[in-house]
Write a structure and sequence with these properties.
Strand 9 (262-265), helix 12 (279-290) and strand 10 form a beta-alpha-beta unit. The chain is 40% helix and 12% strand. By secondary structure, it is of the alpha/beta class.
């Protein structure tokens, strides 16, 4: 599968080249929105640097003639240990937006988490994948001040066949993303919050001197949410609860105590608290604290198959990937997303062979040299 740029010569062969090529397809406001982090973007950069610090110790003379990359998350089979992270406003990258992403994910046998702030609705995305019944879709949730709105979102996701609720817990307020503020970020007039606008008329406003998204969070999301609210959330549907945004072992333990069935170790792609620990650097502590009681996933900074290998070696069951999916979407819609997934699959396959791992269960901490602190 090949994606070619406008000059018909450049063919992306890795995710970094997709990022470079995507810049030709995106407005400056959209590019800044997708790629920016909070404040000085220290955590954004460190998410990537953490993988580069961690070195591999490959095994040799192992029969790796047949490799198996399959796994399961919350009992649902996946062709490789990968889900697409929840990302807002995907129609800024391509008119098909979240529908193209969902179709690519389902066709590849990986999962997708649909954002509350999607530009295609819960129902539209589900309907598009009707012919792919085994596709894994979760719904990412922010708890709004209007609890009736939150209840309606959960009910819509359950009715549409989503398999889990993925609650983002690291955004009681929105991180200060200065590029968005400088650009006075807002959605084009022809794009809307597909789920929220239909339920309650909510949308991203145009704010002078400020990011419209920052204003939305300040006005609509509930910064008073605590662990005790998880009981109420779980009472709304039988869907298992996944907690996204954990960076500490003690919070991992609390998540289990309050009913989470899985945890996503995440710092929101470096977009919330700048200076926070890299997701990868937080992983081992949380895996040890949870001690196998729930499945652990990780997002933030993954750009190579070796990155997935390292995350799994530290105890993650699977990873979530975000921005590179947007780069593929911007370049070539569903085809671009499919190619990004395929590149990661191929790279993980090679990395496993070169590390002496024929199956995912062979990946363990002995493959790593941990950096000295």
């Amino acid at each position: 599968m090949t994606v070619v740029s406008n000059d018909h010569r450049f063919q992306p062969i890795n995710l970094f080249e997709y990022e470079k090529l995507a810049k030709e397809h995106l407005s400056q406001m959209t590019l800044d929105y997708y790629s920016s982090g909070a404040w000085d973007e220290i955590t954004l950069r460190d998410n990537r640097a953490a993988f580069e610090r961690l070195k591999l110790r490959p095994r040799v003379l192992v029969n790796v003639s047949d490799r198996n990359l399959t796994t399961s998350i919350l009992g649902h089979p996946l062709q490789l240990p990968l889900l697409i992270a929840p990302m807002a406003f995907q129609c800024l990258a391509h008119p098909d937006g979240e529908i193209a992403t969902a179709l690519a994910a389902a066709s590849a046998g990986v999962g997708m988490v649909l954002s509350t702030m999607a530009t295609k609705s819960i129902e539209e995305v589900a309907s598009a994948c009707d012919n792919l019944p085994d596709s894994l879709r979760w719904f990412q949730l922010y708890i709004h001040k209007d609890r009736g709105l939150t209840r309606a979102l959960v009910e819509k996701a359950y009715k549409a066949g989503y398999k889990a609720l993925c609650l983002t817990v690291d955004a009681p307020v929105l991180g200060q993303r200065e590029r968005d503020r400088r650009n006075e970020f807002a959605l084009p007039l022809d794009l809307h919050l597909a789920n929220l606008a239909t339920i309650s008329g909510l949308d991203i406003s145009h704010e002078k001197g400020e990011s419209g998204l920052f204003t939305y969070f300040a006005q609509q999301l509930n910064p008073a949410v605590t662990w005790h609210d998880l009981e109420w959330l779980q009472s709304l549907s039988p869907l298992p609860l996944v907690i996204k945004g954990i960076l500490r072992g003690d919070d991992g333990v609390r998540a289990v105590e309050y009913g989470a069935k899985a945890i996503v170790v995440s710092n929101h792609g470096g977009r919330q608290l700048d200076g926070a620990i890299a997701s990868l650097d937080a992983l081992a502590e949380i895996v040890a604290a949870v001690n196998g009681k729930v499945e652990i996933l990780l997002d933030g900074g993954i750009r190579r198959g070796t990155d997935i290998l390292k995350a799994l070696a530290l105890g993650a069951k699977a990873v979530l990937i975000g921005r590179p999916i947007l780069w593929g979407l911007a370049v070539s819609g569903q085809l671009g997303v499919s190619n990004v997934i395929s590149l990661l699959q191929d790279e993980l396959n090679v990395a496993m062979a070169l590390s002496g791992c024929a199956k995912l269960d062979d990946i363990d901490p002995s493959l790593l040299i941990l950096p000295r602190l």
